[in-house]
Amino acid sequence: MNRFKLTIALISFCCLFLLACATKVSAATNLAVISSVATQPTLQNSITYVLRNNPNLALSDIRVEVKNGEVNLYGKAKNGFQRALAEKFLENMDGIKVIHNKVSVI
Description:
By secondary structure, the chain is an alpha+beta fold. Helix content is 42%, strand content 24%. Strand 2 (70-77), helix 3 (80-90) and strand 3 form a beta-alpha-beta unit.
């Protein structure tokens, strides 16, 4: 009987652990937190800040346009990886509905 109780306790602990891991926890300190009702200029400034201050991105002439949650990215990237990375950084930001990545590779 003790082995059965131990098995149930272990399974319960594993389920709780997996549930805790599945929740979205953000400990990033360099990302601006934006509410879903953020104004367009605030969202545009936050996106520009995230892209320009990320050491993993080497984008030049970056320009961001925001309209009704739709983001248009313009600029130049050294390779396709940099272009895709710029879009990936913005995927989980609040207030963004669609990202149109128009960054060109030079």
